Amino acid sequence: MLTNKSKSFWLLLLPALLALMAVLFIPLFIGGYYSLTDWNGNTVGVFLGFENYIKVFKDETFINSLIFTAKFSVVSIILINVVALSLAVLVTQKLGKWSTLFRTVFFMPNLIGGIILGFIWQFIFNKVFTSIADITGIAGFNDWLNTPQTGFWGLVILFVWQMCGYIMLIYISYLNSIPGEIIEAAEIDGASAIQKFFRVKLPMIMPAFTVTLFLTLSSAFKMYDQNLALTAGGPYNSTQMTAMNIYNEAFSMRNMGYAQAKAMIFLLIIVIISIIQISVTRRKESDA
Which of 90, 101, 201, 279 has the most C-beta neighbours closer than 10 Å? Predict the structure, then answer.
């Protein structure tokens, strides 16, 4: 029998559950059904079964976008967390008022929208880098967004610049939560700054890695705005990420059912990777 307390709990929880059903579970089930049809956005059409899913695994453009997204995610996640943790250690030093200023400056890129951010860096790579190449004669600054290799690193630089300030704040909160007595005990024992970081601070902020890795992983895989504004997937779809591939399939080619099958497979991949990541980092937390 439900008590008054449990009735109040479910009553307060009901609006959130209804909202979650409306924006997540119901669209997911509808999308799952449409992925089994030749839906073109207007009419559902013929039921195809798993034909769309079989076709996806033969689609070289989609497979290449998955590979590119995976490489981009691995490189970006490593760089973001290394840079963000370094910045967090820097601004948690005794810098006085400068600490607040540095935190604000480092966080500001995260406040810029993805499209605007892409156009800012497009200007930097196309105009500023070209001017540097003309002045210095270094050819490596030319055509940064016109080759697959430099286009890849252009996206990485943009994403790291945007995300590292946000991830830095998470690391700061965990670094500030370390008891001062532990740091003082390490100093009394003669630990150097490097030893204090790797032997004391790093093990104690392991729970932060569970959060930051999940956030950077999900953000990297679903990135679309920056990809569209910076390279638009070019040249020749060599920098096209999976989110853009699915969007183009749905709204440019009007193959909604097929695009939905791609999206379902992409969702499954992200869920599996996220579960593995969380389980591994949780295990590392307990070991630390």
Answer: 201
